[in-house]
Design brief:
This protein has 2 domains: 199 residues, Ribosomal Protein S5, domain 2 (2-Layer Sandwich); 185 residues, 2-Layer Sandwich (Alpha-Beta Plaits). It is built from 15 helices and 12 strands. Strand 9 and strand 10 form a beta hairpin. The chain is globular and about 70 Å long.
Length: 439
């Protein structure tokens, strides 16, 4: 492990190797290089201010873990289906140094400092649902797996917007694991194991019953497809596709609305799909087929309900679409991939029905954003390039995802922010690298 002084890192930020690294992590858009240099310099200032003795004596390393976006397989994972996700060029960035006191101390921009003692990793009363519980859970699981533990001090900053469905919490969890892995010189931890450790922390210590998609994508990077047919041993495949060569930007559009009261809506999707599976004689939909649902529609709508049948049809169609999307990307056929994105968006809208909550039928930000994107796409003068859009993540409120030709990106953002307000659009690129040391 090579530690550098603050001054060495400041010098490195102005050199060619840093420029190449920034392009790898954040892309080559105008202004990206200078913005990242400024951001990294600010983080080093923070570390020097918060931990002057460590900066002077032990040096520091820089780490980056990307956020993630779901690309295919909307609400398929909980019925043992497939998903397609991708790491993005917005990240949690950390400056960190090891300590000898066994304490993990983290100062994150915009949040109060936290401290966790790695020598006391039992669950703490009142800590559930807090950021310290995630750190404690990560350390507890590493200890259970036989890794030696120690402390570190870090300053962190994040460019992942909260509430946009880009998994800032998963990125933070994986970031803590990567810092411990490298600062303590642990045996290398493969990305799937990192994801499983992070999920343990979120499930057991934080108290959120999340799956494995978010953490896996943050750890692996690039386009990632995950098959959950065996929940205990999901199959992870990194898709070989260079998104930067596509000529497109991905845009996350924040449509407003709160996720606070949507637990019932999210639960109903999983429950209704599984109720159809039980009516067919199983526990989840994956072992069955779309044809079996179609052949038994009459009995299923009576045994369960009509919406559940529609949601089951969505599951089988979107599960297959993930396979087709991967094939299109690996064959370099991006227009076909965009067709499948649109088909997934239409299926979520019409069959899955997670564009809005049925308990608040007049609040339809997601469906309005999809309709507005379609109107924009159909009215472009003379454009030969297609666009694509879909529900992003859980749905019912929140965000959509759109793939927009780079040369038309500013026009799209202007149009959408005229509807949803300034700052509603987050352009992102697909980042090939997962959680990693930077310098």
């Amino acid at each position: 492990m090579v530690m550098s002084s603050i001054q060495q890192l400041r010098t490195l930020l102005s050199l060619a190797p840093a420029e190449a690294r920034f392009v790898e992590l954040y892309g080559s858009q105008p202004g990206a290089l200078s913005a990242q240099r400024q951001r990294y310099a600010g983080l080093l200032d923070c570390f020097q201010s918060q931990f002057p003795e460590l900066a002077a004596v032990h040096g520091v390393r820089l780490f980056s873990t990307p956020g993630r976006t779901e690309v295919g397989g909307n609400h398929t994972d909980h019925n043992a289906g497939r998903v397609l996700a991708a790491a993005v060029n917005r990240d949690v960035l950390a400056a960190a140094s090891s300590t000898r006191d066994g304490l993990v101390t983290i100062c994150s921009e915009g949040y109060p400092p936290l401290q966790v003692d790695t020598r006391s990793l039992g669950m703490v009363d009142g800590e559930r649902g807090t950021t310290p519980s995630l750190v404690r859970g990560v350390c507890a699981r590493l200890q259970q797996l036989g890794y030696p533990l120690g402390g570190f001090a870090a300053c962190m900053t994040s460019s992942i917007p909260t509430g946009a469905g880009l998994s800032s919490s998963a990125a933070f969890e994986v970031q803590v694991i990567t810092i411990l892995e490298h600062l303590l010189q642990l045996e290398p931890i493969d990305p799937l194991t990192k994801a499983q450790i992070a999920r343990f922390a979120e499930n057991e210590y934080f108290g959120k019953p999340c799956g494995l998609m978010d953490q896996t994508t943050c750890a692996v990077g690039g386009f990632v497809t995950i098959d959950f047919q065996d929940f205990q041993h999901p199959v992870v495949h990194k898709v070989d596709y260079d998104f930067a060569s596509s000529g497109y930007a991905m845009v996350i559009v924040e449509t407003g609305g709160s996720h606070a009261d949507l637990t019932e809506d999210y639960a109903s999707v999983q429950q209704e799909m599984r109720n159809v599976a039980r009516a067919l004689g199983g526990q989840v939909l994956r072992p069955f087929s779309r044809e079996q649902v179609v052949e038994n529609m009459g009995a299923l709508k009576s045994a369960v309900n009509e919406r559940a049948v529609l949601r089951a049809l969505h599951f089988f169609a979107d599960n297959q679409r993930v396979i087709d999307q991967v094939q299109a990307l690996e064959a370099g056929c991006f227009p076909r991939f965009l067709e499948l994105v649109n088909a997934s968006g239409a299926s979520s809208w019409m069959l899955l029905q997670n564009g809005y909550s049925p308990r608040c039928p007049t609040n339809q930000g997601i469906t309005l954003a999809q309709a507005a994107t379609r109107e924009w796409a159909e009215r472009r003068p003379g454009s030969a390039l297609p666009a694509a859009w879909r529900v992003h993540g859980g749905g019912f409120a929140g965000t959509i995802q759109a793939f927009i030709p780079q040369q038309e990106l500013e026009d799209y953002i202007e149009f959408m922010e005229g509807i949803f307000g300034a700052g509603a659009c987050y352009p992102v690129l697909i980042r090939t690298l997962g959680s990693t040391p930077v310098f």
